[in-house]
C-alpha cells in the first residue's frame, strides 16, 4: 500500500543542487497547518455524499446498548464565533426515581461542509471541563463525526444536588431543610471564522446518555447531604483509564460501600481507589462564561492561578489537567532553538521541550508531559481523511495525584492552584479540575506533609549549525517525591507519590534547510503507594508509565508559485498501569500507533492536491482481555479495517 518516496525526492533535490534557480524555501519557514481547498481530495472520495470521520480506538464499554435515559445538553451552529462567548445552556440531571444509572457517556456530534480550518473545542459543566476536542476539516460534500467519551468520573455533576452541597466546606454541610434539584449549566466553545473564503459552519449537538447494568443504581448518602453515584471502578489513569480493569475487588458496589469501615484492608482500600469523586471543582478562568474557562498561556512567565475552597472532610485529591498547544507552539516538539529561527521570519522556535506544571499555594505539585496531538490540518491534512490523528477527537487529560498536599488544602479557606507551561511560547490553552473524595463519617479530616522533594528540571543541549543546516539535540528530565499522612475514617494512612519524566529530542536540517527530520520521545512514570502502620505496610499501589515517541521527516521542493512537500510521520502512544492490592496485581495497557506518508502541493496554507496513506494499529489489553484494531487508508479510501479480541492477532 505504501512505497518509499524519499529516494525519489532526494534525487530531485540532487538534480536541483544548490542552484539559486531552484529557489529553495527553508522548511521551518513554511506553515505546518493547512486547509483543504476545493478539489484537493482524490476524485475517488468526491462522490457528493458526506463522509464520516473517526478515530478507531476502543469504544466505551457499556453495560447495555440502549441507555436508560438521555439528555440533550446543547445544540448550536458555530458560524462566525471568534471572539464571542461560548454557547451555553442549562439542564437538570435526571432524578434517580426516573433514571437509575451507573455509567454516563457524553456524545459530541458535529457536521460541516465547505472549506474551513480545524478548530479547537471544549465542553464544560458548571465550569468543569469534561471534553476537549478538535474538529475535522470539512469538504465541499460535507463531513460528520461523533465523539463518545465515558464521563462517569464526573458523576457528581450529573446527579441532582441540593443548594447546600458546597456548604460541606464548613464541616459536612447542612443536613436539613428542603432539597431542590440544582440546575446545571453547560458551555461549549468553538471559535470559528466564516467569510467568503472559509465557509464551513460547524453544527454541533452535545448529549449525555445514562446506562445501568442493573446492579447498583445511584443511592443517597445522607451523611454527605448530596447525591453520590456509586461505581466500582478504579481511578482513571492517563488515556487508557484504569476503569478498564472493571471491579478487581470481586465485590458488588453495595458491598464496597458497606465496608467503608470494612473487615479487611482489601475492602477498605478497594473503596478508596474504586469510586468516583464526590466533588469536582473547576480550576479555570473566572470569566469563563464570556471568554471560555481555559487559561490562555502566552509564554513561560505567563502563569495563571485559580482559587479553590475544599470541604474539611476531603481525604483524597486528584488534579486533572487539560492542555493543548496552538499558534507558534502547536508543533512545539519540532521547534528548533532561537539561534536557528532568528535567520527566518518564523517565530516557531524556543527549542523542542515543554513542561506543563502545577503549584499549590506556590509549592510545586507536579508536571505532565503532553502527548503531541496532531490536529486534522497538521503536517498534511490528507493523512487524516477519514481516520484522524491519535487523540484529535478525544484529547487526553492528565492526572496529578495531589493527596500529599491535603495538609495544605485543608488549612484556611481558599487556596491557589497555579498552572504554567515551562519554555512555552504563544500559545497554550490549559485548564484543570480538582477531584475530591469526602469522608461520609467525619466532618473534618487531618493531614500533614512527610516529604516534599522536587528537583528542578535538568536540560542539556548540543547544537551544530551551518547557515540553514544544523543538528540540534536536547535532553531534559525531572523527578519529584511527595509524601503525607491523612487521618480519616479509613485510618491513618501515608500517601507517597513519586514522579519522573525524561525527554529527548533531535532535530536536523539538511540541503539548505529544505529537508527536516524530527525525533522526540517523552517518558513519564508515577508510582503511588498507600501505606499503614509504623512499618509502612503497603495496602495499595498504583503504578503508571507512558511514552510518546514521534518521528517526522519533511522535504520541500520549489515549484512555480507553489511548493511541493513530502512528509513521513510516525507517532505512538503507549501507556501501562498496574494496580496492586495485597498480593493481587491487575494490569492494563494501551498502544496506539500511526504511520503516514504522502505529498501535497501547497500555496500558502492551502492544499491544492496530493496523495497520502495512513496505517493505524490500536491495541488494548485489560488483564488478558484484548481489543485490537488495524485500519489502512490510501487517498481517503479505507482499504482495510480489521478488529479482533485475540491478544495474539497480527
Automatic annotation (TrEMBL):
Signal peptide start and end residues: 1-20
Peptide N-acetyl-beta-D-glucosaminyl asparaginase amidase A N-terminal domain residues: 65-159, 186-453
Keywords carried by this UniProt record: Signal
Record protein name field: Peptide-N4-(N-acetyl-beta-glucosaminyl)asparagine amidase A
Organism: Anthurium amnicola
Organism taxonomic ancestry: Eukaryota, Viridiplantae, Streptophyta, Embryophyta, Tracheophyta
Amino acid at each position: 500500500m505504501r512505497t518509499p518516496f524519499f529516494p525519489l525526492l532526494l534525487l530531485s533535490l540532487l538534480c536541483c543542487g544548490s542552484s539559486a534557480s531552484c529557489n529553495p524555501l527553508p522548511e521551518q519557514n513554511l506553515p505546518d497547518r493547512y486547509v483543504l481547498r476545493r478539489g484537493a481530495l482524490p476524485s475517488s472520495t468526491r462522490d457528493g455524499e458526506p463522509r464520516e470521520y473517526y478515530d478507531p480506538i476502543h469504544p466505551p464499554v457499556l453495560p447495555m446498548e440502549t441507555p436508560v435515559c438521555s439528555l440533550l445538553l446543547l445544540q448550536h451552529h458555530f458560524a462566525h464565533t471568534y471572539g464571542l462567548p461560548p454557547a451555553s445552556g442549562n439542564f437538570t440531571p435526571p432524578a434517580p426515581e426516573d433514571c437509575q444509572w451507573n455509567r454516563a457517556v457524553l456524545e459530541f456530534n458535529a457536521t460541516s461542509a465547505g472549506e474551513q480550518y480545524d478548530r479547537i473545542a471544549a465542553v464544560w459543566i458548571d465550569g468543569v471541563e469534561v471534553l476537549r476536542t478538535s474538529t475535522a476539516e470539512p469538504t465541499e460534500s460535507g463531513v460528520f463525526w461523533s465523539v463518545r467519551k465515558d464521563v462517569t468520573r464526573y458523576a457528581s455533576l450529573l446527579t441532582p444536588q441540593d443548594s447546600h452541597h458546597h456548604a460541606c466546606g464548613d464541616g459536612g454541610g447542612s443536613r436539613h431543610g428542603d432539597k431542590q434539584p440544582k440546575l446545571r449549566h453547560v458551555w461549549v466553545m468553538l471559535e470559528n471564522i466564516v467569510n467568503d473564503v472559509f465557509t464551513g459552519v460547524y453544527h454541533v449537538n452535545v448529549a449525555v446518555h445514562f446506562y445501568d447494568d442493573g446492579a447498583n443504581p445511584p443511592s443517597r448518602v445522607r451523611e454527605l447531604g448530596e447525591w453520590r453515584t456509586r461505581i466500582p471502578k478504579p481511578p482513571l489513569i492517563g488515556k487508557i483509564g484504569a476503569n478498564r480493569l472493571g471491579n478487581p475487588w470481586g465485590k458488588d458496589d453495595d458491598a464496597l460501600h458497606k465496608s467503608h469501615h470494612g473487615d479487611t484492608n482489601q475492602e477498605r482500600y478497594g473503596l478508596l481507589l474504586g469510586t468516583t469523586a464526590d466533588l469536582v471543582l473547576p480550576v479555570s478562568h473566572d470569566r469563563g462564561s464570556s471568554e471560555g474557562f481555559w487559561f490562555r498561556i502566552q509564554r513561560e512567565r505567563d502563569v495563571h492561578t485559580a482559587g479553590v475552597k475544599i470541604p474539611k472532610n476531603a481525604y483524597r485529591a486528584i488534579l486533572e489537567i487539560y492542555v493543548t498547544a496552538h499558534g507558534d507552539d502547536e508543533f512545539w516538539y519540532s521547534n528548533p532553538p532561537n539561534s536557528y529561527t532568528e535567520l527566518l521570519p518564523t517565530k516557531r522556535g524556543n527549542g523542542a521541550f515543554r513542561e506543563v506544571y502545577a503549584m499549590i499555594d506556590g509549592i510545586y505539585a507536579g508536571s505532565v508531559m503532553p502527548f503531541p496531538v496532531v490536529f486534522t490540518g497538521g503536517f498534511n491534512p490528507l493523512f487524516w481523511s477519514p481516520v484522524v490523528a491519535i487523540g484529535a477527537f478525544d484529547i487526553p487529560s492528565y492526572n496529578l495525584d495531589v493527596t500529599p498536599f491535603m495538609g495544605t488544602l485543608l488549612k484556611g479557606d481558599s487556596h491557589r492552584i497555579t498552572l504554567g507551561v515551562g519554555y512555552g511560547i504563544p500559545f497554550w490553552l490549559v485548564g484543570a479540575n480538582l477531584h475530591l473524595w469526602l469522608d461520609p463519617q467525619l466532618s473534618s479530616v487531618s493531614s500533614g506533609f512527610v516529604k516534599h522533594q522536587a528537583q528542578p528540571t535538568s536540560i542539556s543541549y548540543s547544537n551544530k549549525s551551518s547557515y540553514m543546516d544544523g543538528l540540534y539535540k536536547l535532553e531534559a528530565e525531572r523527578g519529584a517525591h511527595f509524601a503525607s499522612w491523612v487521618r480519616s475514617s479509613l485510618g491513618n494512612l501515608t500517601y507517597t507519590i513519586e514522579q519522573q519524566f525524561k525527554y529527548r529530542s533531535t532535530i536536523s536540517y539538511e540541503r539548505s534547510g529544505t529537508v527536516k527530520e524530527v525525533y522526540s520521545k517523552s517518558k513519564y512514570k508515577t508510582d503511588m503507594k498507600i501505606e499503614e502502620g509504623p512499618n509502612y505496610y503497603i495496602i495499595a499501589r498504583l503504578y503508571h508509565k507512558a511514552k510518546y515517541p514521534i518521528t517526522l521527516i519533511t522535504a520541500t521542493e520549489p515549484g512555480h508559485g507553489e511548493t511541493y512537500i513530502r512528509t513521513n510521520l510516525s507517532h505512538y502512544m503507549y501507556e501501562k498501569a498496574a494496580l496492586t492490592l495485597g498480593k493481587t496485581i491487575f494490569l492494563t495497557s494501551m498502544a496506539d500507533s500511526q504511520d503516514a506518508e504522502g505529498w501535497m502541493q501547497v500555496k500558502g496554507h492551502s492544499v491544492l492536491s496530493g496523495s497520502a496513506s495512513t496505517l493505524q494499529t490500536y491495541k488494548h489489553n485489560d488483564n488478558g482481555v484484548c481489543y485490537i484494531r488495524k485500519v489502512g487508508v490510501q487517498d481517503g479510501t479505507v482499504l482495510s479495517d480489521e478488529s479482533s479480541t485475540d491478544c495474539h492477532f497480527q
